[in-house]
Amino acid sequence: RVVRKMAASGAEPQVLVQYLVLRKDLSQAPFSWPAGALVAQACHAATAALHTHRDHPHTTAYLQELGRMRKVVLEAPNETTLKELAETLQQKNIDHMLWLEQPENIATCIALRPYPKEEVGQYLKKFRLFK
């Protein structure tokens, strides 16, 4: 969870966060998915992102302290916004997973691999905490 920079830099340890962005409209009509289905989508995306990027040093550090993992779940208003975010992340070379629920092929959630907050926060500022 904490990545220590070179001692010579004098920098504080970086706290690693795994960000998830979940579609808010799936909880509302006409979709009206139950809370459990939404939680499952976030779990699928988070697990897939961790697995896909399991060899990255940030992911390795994040998984070494299972009891101290930090996740932040944000909301996207709809599928269009979620896909636009995925495109932006792709263009900026930010490792992530866009989860597509099957068999419908519906984009439901994006999970980033663990990152220091300072590295990705600027791309997620427009998204609110999921309520």
UniProtKB/TrEMBL annotation:
Annotated protein name in UniProt: peptidyl-tRNA hydrolase
Keywords: Hydrolase
Gene that specifies this protein: C2orf79
Species, as recorded: Macaca mulatta (Rhesus macaque)
A Pfam family it matches: PTH2
GO molecular function: peptidyl-tRNA hydrolase activity
Domain of life: Eukaryota
Lineage, uppermost ranks: Eukaryota, Metazoa, Chordata, Craniata, Vertebrata
PANTHER family documented for this protein: PEPTIDYL-TRNA HYDROLASE PTRHD1-RELATED
Entry EC number(s): 3.1.1.29
Reactions listed under catalytic activity: an N-acyl-L-alpha-aminoacyl-tRNA + H2O = an N-acyl-L-amino acid + a tRNA + H(+)
EC class: hydrolase
SUPFAM superfamilies (UniProt xref): Peptidyl-tRNA hydrolase II (SSF102462)
